[in-house]
Amino acid sequence: MDPLSGEDKKKKRGRPKANVEDLGTRLTKTNAGEDYEEVCIRNVFDRITFQSTGGIKPRIPDADIYLSLPSKLASNLASRDITQLLPTQRYTLTLLVEHDMDVFVGAATGHGKTLAFLIPIAVGLLRSLPRDISSCRRPLALIIANTQVLQVQTYRVCQDLVAGTGLRVVLVCGQTDMMDQKKDIEKGCDIVIATTGRLKQFLKEKQLSLEDLQYYVYDEADKMTQGGAFREDVTEIDTYIPPETKAKLRSCFFTATLDAMGGFEKMYREGKFCLVRVPGNPSITHKIIPIDMENDCDDKKSLILMQLLRRDLIIQGRDTYDTSKETYKHKTVIFVGLKLRCNWLGAYLRMYGFSVGVANGDHSLQMRNTIIKKFCDGEIQALIATDSMARGHDIPDVTHVINYDMADNALDTFKHRAGRTARIGHKGTCTTLLSRSDFLLFDDNPHISINELDPRRKRAKELAHYLVIECGQKIPKCLQKPALNAVKDELSLWGNNVDDPYNWMINEMGLEAHDIVKQEEMEKEKEKRKEMKKEKEENYSLSRPIPPSQQVEENEEKEDVEKKEEEEM
To answer: In this protein, which residues make up the domain named Helicase C-terminal (predicted)?
Structure first.
């Protein structure tokens, strides 16, 4: 047999190119939940932080989609049970369309971030003068991100939003047929949704021109601050935008985790910058399970995990080894840190009768899509995944996220993982198995001699701060002392002799930090009452015998007092 030529080898080894329609699952079909209006609109709006360089005071449009949007866009949203704009979407709509501003949006996952840039783009383009787009290669809006899965989702959401408006949307990404994409561009491309690699190729080949660009969106912008290929690609793409186009270009950066600007301010037009910060999702109930060092191993943690999964099954009226064809109404995503552990945990849970699937980078795109589709359709109860699933995936009916492992960049990853549940008005729970050694849980030694901040205490403080300030929840008991001791460490390093570190804790954590003070006072009072109770019991035993009838009355009175004391505590 003749050896294959170099050209044939490439064809042989190359991945099969998928059709765009084959890439998507039901990832974009999450409809608004029952708490959509109350939680996502009323509770969040007043907590938004807004800043601008131009000193503008934007007029925030009405939340009712029929009052704020063109009728066709409104009806398309209503078909997904969305009748009210989220606070993020109301801000971006007025800032991008009415005020011609560049926008940096820091919004926790689950706040409608994708529609927050698609809606103003669609409204702005529909207001533009009509033009012939039958053979146009010059998009008016460009949306870039670093992953194909995220862009496929964005593409489908955009298609649903602009259906019937005449606006054309084109997806430009790798692992899909290039000729099909070129044909789509030839038909017209008002909005291009792209990954950077394929976009660079099309720009070099002059299949696309950015001369007419009006909107430029960087989704998951925090990835740019991490350097690497994505940042280099973005820098190269920027060279294809003419200076005269940049002068009028509205740049939009969207991220769920970036607290600082990360150098993005250099990319904004002078006097045209504004910042919108949206707090964490109040619909997520966070639960922390502290794991002692002796239990910090897969054997013990997997038992805890199975207990959590069994409880989720009981809520649905089911159990393990259930052979019924009924779909799972409540789904669970389990995040682990390593691909090897991901595969092991999947096999382990299946051995005990749990219906689970595994998705990680070792699997082909087709395999991942097959598993995710089964999960979306309710054929399996739980999906075990690495952090490749933590960003961008909008999977319907995920009611529980379990962090089996915490990642190295704990807080950023924690936010993305938790965002897979409680989306657009639905409720959800995020349970985290937290290692005592990694976060100094309960931290009973406040006098550790250090020359710099203990990173474990710092992580505990950051997590506690997020739960209180962003999510409006109380600090879990296991995080209270390490968070407080982290503040004390900072004070000692700064040379500040503060008699009452609790005031600093209150400034750092908000009013909920009073819980720490209150908790310690209650514990002291509880110990005091225990001693008093013990002393009373000793006195009772030494006293003379009491008639049975009187003894019963005194016991009842004693029980009433103890009950009242417990209620007061």
So the answer is: 316-464
Residues 516 and 481 in one domain: yes
Q: Give the pLDDT confidence of 25-41 residue by residue, as tens digits.
A: 334 455 655 555 555 56
CB 44 within 8 A of CB 279: yes
**Taking the complete model, does pTM exceed 0.85, yes or no?**
no
The amino acid that residue 153 corresponds to is Q
- Tell me how far apart the alpha carbons of residues 309 and 298 are, in angstroms, rounded to a whole number: 16
Closest CA to 391 of 417, 371, 353: 417
Unique residue bearing structure tokens 């060279």: 239
Q: Which residues are CB-neighbours of 454 under 8 A, at least 6 positions away?
A: 440, 448, 486, 489
Three-class SS state of 482:
helix
Please, how many CA atoms are within 13 Å of residue 320, restricted to the half-sphere of its CB? 13
Cα–Cα distance for residue pair 327/249, rounded to 1 Å: 47
Q: How many CA atoms lie within 13 A of 128 on its CB side?
A: 20
Provide the β-strand partners of residue 356.
382
Same domain, 486 and 378: no
What single-letter DSSP state applies at residue 39?
Answer: I
Cβ neighbours for 503, distance < 8 A, ≥ 6 positions apart:
none
